[in-house]
Design brief:
Glutamine Phosphoribosylpyrophosphate, subunit 1, domain 1; 7-stranded antiparallel sheet
Length: about 260
Amino acid sequence: MCELLGMSASVPTDICFSFTGLIRRGGHTGPHKDGWGIAFYDGKGCRTFHDPAASAASPIADFLRHHSIKSEIVISHIRRANRGRVALENTHPFMREMWGQNWVFAHNGQLRGIKKLSLGAYRPIGGTDSEFAFCWMLGKLRERWSNAPSDRALHRAIEELSLQIGQHGVFNMLLSNGRSLYCFRSTNLVWLTRRAPFGAATLVDEDLTVDFAKDTSPSDVVTIVATRPLTKDERWSTTPKSTLVAFRNGELKTTS
């Protein structure tokens, strides 16, 4: 299985601390050595970095964990290959344009028989079942609406499509259009929200502690989503099973 990392924040925030914990699992403290990637939203744009090498030994990953790229939404992934060879085109997160927005997607799990589904306007470049599922989902959304719908309608549609994909196996995923961070859990996905009063946190996978009070303001809100808890001294919550949740500006949003 692969591992996921996402962030939604009220202000541009760097993810260096959490990313440090994640990449250690990519070939050092974990077996996810078959590539990694990360996407940072910046307004309407999106910076992406990918490498088919193990993240724990990647010079690019090492650069990013020391280089503060601030963003309000980030999606990252470390890969343990099971469908599709180890190659750059098979590293997550995947990105496509829809309705004039950059859509970014990362997935953890195996989806049996997913490639029997008929694709619409989008086609995968690599050989993973993950990218195929992403293309299928975007195709279905684009068939339904020629322009971006309301947040409520979009949320319900993504949840419906996620449930359909989940019938093919394990579907833990992170998805964003630069406005919301959507999260869907089949098996493993946890989250925590940091807000004032901020405190210190220590990584599980490296002897590193950060005091967030030193670099935040009282109004800052930052939510981190991951496959497994990245810190040992914070309370992580499990996302509801088979239910789509969305975070915007660091806050959990409801569809009601």
